[in-house]
Amino acid sequence: MGGKPARTIKSSTVSKPSESIVKTPVDTKGLSVSKSKDLSEWYTQVIQKAELIDYPPIQGFMILRPNGYALWERIQTTFNAVLAEKGVHNAYFPLLIPDSFFKKEAEHAKGFAPELAYIKGTEQGQLLALRPTSETIIYDSFAKWIRSWRDLPMKLNQWCNVIRWEVKQTKPLLRTREFLWQEGHCAFATQQEARANMREMLQAYKKLIEQELAIPVLAGRKSTAEKFPGADMSMTVEALMPDGKALQMGTSHSLKQEFARSFNISFLDQQGVQQGIWPTSWGISTRLLGGLVMVHGDDKGLVIPPRMAKQQIVIVPILFDESKVQVLTQARALRDSLHPFSVVIDDREGYSPGWKFNEWEMKGVPVRVELGPKDLAKQQVVVIRRDTGVKEIVPLGNVKTYIETLLETIQHDLYAKAKHFLDSQIVTASSLKELQKGIKERKLVKVYMVDDPRVEKKLKDATDGATTRLIEEVTKEGVCVQTGEKTYTLAYWAKSY
Amino acid sequence: MGGKPARTIKSSTVSKPSESIVKTPVDTKGLSVSKSKDLSEWYTQVIQKAELIDYPPIQGFMILRPNGYALWERIQTTFNAVLAEKGVHNAYFPLLIPDSFFKKEAEHAKGFAPELAYIKGTEQGQLLALRPTSETIIYDSFAKWIRSWRDLPMKLNQWCNVIRWEVKQTKPLLRTREFLWQEGHCAFATQQEARANMREMLQAYKKLIEQELAIPVLAGRKSTAEKFPGADMSMTVEALMPDGKALQMGTSHSLKQEFARSFNISFLDQQGVQQGIWPTSWGISTRLLGGLVMVHGDDKGLVIPPRMAKQQIVIVPILFDESKVQVLTQARALRDSLHPFSVVIDDREGYSPGWKFNEWEMKGVPVRVELGPKDLAKQQVVVIRRDTGVKEIVPLGNVKTYIETLLETIQHDLYAKAKHFLDSQIVTASSLKELQKGIKERKLVKVYMVDDPRVEKKLKDATDGATTRLIEEVTKEGVCVQTGEKTYTLAYWAKSY
User: Fold this and answer.
1) What is the b/e burial string over A100-125, where b = at least 16 CB atoms within 10 angstroms of the residue's CB?
2) Is residue B385 part of a domain?
3) Is A454 found in the same domain as A381?
4) Cβ contact (<8 Å) for B119 and A120?
């Protein structure tokens, strides 16, 4: 598909609204900064101009507008099918959790205490916190529901809001005091099964993020210093943003048996012996949408991968009074023929085609189809890819097949482009100096490192607050850049969101 | 379908688990009270034994277990399709709302103040409440998003949790301090459109509740005294519970234009004149599940209407060592043939068929299929309706057609039975004395009444706290039972949940 010259389309005034689909024009003065110049400002503008989010009058919170929420619903639908297939049942536990529950497991308490928000006043002496995560309140129920080996595994999930009173600078979708997520909580009879579940769910996240969001991720375990408060082992999927910062996209944990024991969960095994359970928990959140914006967006706005798009195709009919009826009729016939793709016709009056093009580009709709009277005469349409801007003239009879392939191509290309970037940013360092240099150059730096919090702390201090994103166990021995000890663990270092 | 005598099924011990579907046996000691004897205690037992809900350690809250949440998900799926068709977009607004927002509209403030829960501490001087409903925070955004007539109508909805710190006695699903709901919020250019939307959504609720939940409802407007705080007009759908108490199943409101005006929402009309908008709001909640339990359940437990059932059919194979393989093979073939109905096979070991029957009856699965070696030999199965307990022997070749019809019949019969009860409980009273008598007899009593809060208050005091459930405007003039004035408004009085 060669880059055809852009058509000059005259602004047209049409007489009457006929089929209005979108009534609120977005603010398409366009973006005042380019993505490469100032990613942070670009991001702030795109999420608002594409109407994904807006700011409520409460610091650190966000409003998910329909365009943003639709992306989250797409993730919910896709992932609910995965959950059903894996025998995980959806449920709902209370928003409020007794503060005493957080104190039962020391690490968990320490990890979440700074971010807890509480309800005013107490109820029968209970101090109640808003859930930052629900392990504790769910374990309280597990203790009642789990009696024997027959009750295991128990696999529950909930889609809900959580509150974490962030003290760091907040940023919509990436770090907010309230966000939406799913949290899965399972109980197993053996550590082996728990570990397998942790890995299985991490793989499910990787698949979802790579295949649907078209974002390549690195999967691995968290270092001892970075693991979830209360976890025995934590795994993570990490994506790389265009500024070289890593974004944690999802985590999966195998929790300490003592965590469950502190809630008195136990079961009678097949030999009639009382045993402790092995819990797991795993979650993804609306943060994924922030990653999607940053990875795929460009200077025209949002770019939504076709599999994530609620509206995959927009048809913009070029309307003149004399041919309006014929063009609209053809546009509607085309829309109907494109089933089951989701298609909108933008026939709003009072806006020029060029203005509409800008708006749909800002919103990131993957494919635009232009259809004017001249196209009608030639029985053709112009098809424009959102990701590359490439235009192609396509005979009307071939449009469906053409677009079908094109949507797959776009999905594939977005992933490939992001994968190429990710791969190009990973560098290996064999000394502290090289690690520091890599971090300074905003790379994802791979180093041999002993997985010890004290060692990691020293490196963190030496790299201006970069963190290990994940740990890879390798078979080839190496030398720890901090201690000089021999080790089989590789750490990926980066700045992060 | 005649009432065949119950088969005597021997308890069987099978060797090994083969296809376990449900691992946690419910507590099927059975219900210790009958529904007709003590509805309240029966309800409390059923919702727990059918594993719809459980009690968390926080007063007035509830846990929606997978069986309960699945019913809510069914409502979400069905209603999301309705919303999409009506051009309503899902979104998500913050859980926390500045207290000052509630003070902007006097009636709204007065209505919700007693139930507000607050976050400890303030943020930049803001006192923050947990949402009891989201008109205020959404109107704050409407003021930003609505500029001209082109932006109207604006139709948003959110599925979320809400917190109302009830002081009355709580009861799971019916009255809890946290519940799940959907709240739709729209803005229109004219009062006429807003009123039409209010009525349209009420009808959508009526259809959902009658056709899916098989619960007949009365639809009408709320009296002036009972309308939503801040509404210009409120409409309601009301169902009648077996104890003669009404249950409000959903409400739809046309709000005062001043409510929107207090948030500075206005738009430029087509003539360029600044106008106020007309808002509506409407909602249904997890309370619907409580109604479903009470209306359809019986002394064996829950009865789920087929359209609401996640599991519509359970096959219980009668397993003996010598014929186990053949029976299970046939059971699986039968399950596959019953697609797209949702079927589970209960082949758990260590439980007798009779024990399993009790459990599935407690859970309310609409149809049970029994299949043993003798049935296999005769190429037949036994099909049992959950609602009536009627058994029928059906040739294997006819099972799908038979069950298809049966599920429709059950859905229809459940509605018809409930409708018959509702109709039989409505009485007309033409004096205060008759009204008092009707209320004492736990009827839904229809009386002529002037729609005036002072009049209503007197009647409320005279009827031991009964309330008007809805108001019907009629063409036939009558005499108010309180004032003796002539009036065209009929009020339906009842005790309520």
Assistant:
1) ebbebbeebbebbeebbbbbeeebee
2) yes
3) no
4) yes
Task: Flag whether residue B476 sits within 8 Å of chain A, measured between CB atoms.
Answer: no
Output the pLDDT for position B125.
81
Confidence bin at B105 (pLDDT 50/70/90): confident
In chain A, the residue whose alpha carbon lies closest to the alpha carbon of B89 is A66
Same domain, residue pair A292 and A332: no
pLDDT for the residue B121: 80
Instruction: Report the domain count for chain B.
Output: 3
CB B86 within 8 Å of CB B204: yes
pLDDT in tens, B381-405: 999 999 999 999 999 999 999 999 9
pLDDT at residue B108, rounded to an integer: 87
User: B95 and A178: CB-CB below 8 Å?
Assistant: yes
> Any CB–CB contact under 8 A between B56 and chain A?
yes
Q: Is the pLDDT of residue A357 over 60?
A: yes
Is B69's CB within 8 Å of A90's CB? yes
CATH number at residue A466: 3.30.110.30
Q: Is A55 on the interface with B (CB under 8 A)?
A: no
Instruction: Find out whether B53 and A91 touch, Cβ atoms under 8 Å.
Output: no
Indicate whether B20 pLDDT > 50: no
Q: Cβ of A16 under 8 Å from any chain B Cβ?
A: no
| pTM summary value | 0.93
CA angle at residue B226 from B222 to B231, to 5 degrees? 75
Q: Does B96 touch chain A (CB under 8 A)?
A: yes
Amino acid B167: pLDDT: 87
Closest among B295, B241, B296 to B425, alpha carbons compared: B241
pLDDT digits (tens, 9 = 90+) for B159-206: 999 999 998 899 999 999 999 999 999 999 999 999 999 999 999 999
**Is the confidence at residue B460, as pLDDT, over 50?**
yes
CB-based contact, A115 to chain B, within 8 Å: no
A109 confidence band (pLDDT: 50, 70, 90): confident
Q: Which residue of B has its CA nearest to A124?
A: B59
For position A367, which CATH number holds? 3.40.50.800
Residues A74 and A206 in one domain: yes
A69 touches chain B (CB under 8 A): yes
pLDDT of residue B27: 53
Taking an 8 Å cut-off on Cβ atoms, the answer to whether B61 and A154 are in contact is no
How do residues A124-149 score in pLDDT, each as one tens digit?
789 999 999 999 999 999 999 999 99
Assess whether B351 and B389 both reside in one domain: yes
Q: Do residue A64 and residue B92 have CB atoms under 8 angstroms apart?
A: yes
Q: Which of A356, A372, A406 is the last residue of a domain?
A: A406
CATH code at position A260: 3.30.930.10
Contact B56 A141 (CB under 8 A): yes
Residue B35 falls inside a structural domain: no
Shortest Cα distance from B179 to chain A (angstroms)? Answer: 9
What is the reported pLDDT for A27?
Answer: 53
| A59 close to B (CB below 8 A) | yes
Scored b (16 or more CB within 10 A) or e, A224-250 reads bebbbbbbbbbbbbbbbbbebbbbbbb
A142 assigned to some structural domain: yes
Q: How far apart are CA B388 and CA A243, in angstroms?
A: 66
A401 DSSP assignment: H
Residue A94: closest CA among B117, B168, B43, B25: B117
**Domain limits for position B394:** 311-406
Give the Cα separation of B240 and B497 in Å (integer): 10
Two structure tokens written together for A226: 């970075």
Same domain, A364 and A471: no
Cβ contact (<8 Å) for A178 and B57? Answer: no
Distance of CA A123 to the CA centre of its chain: 37
ipTM above 0.95, yes or no: no
Spatial contact of A116 and A165, defined as CB atoms under 8 Å apart: yes
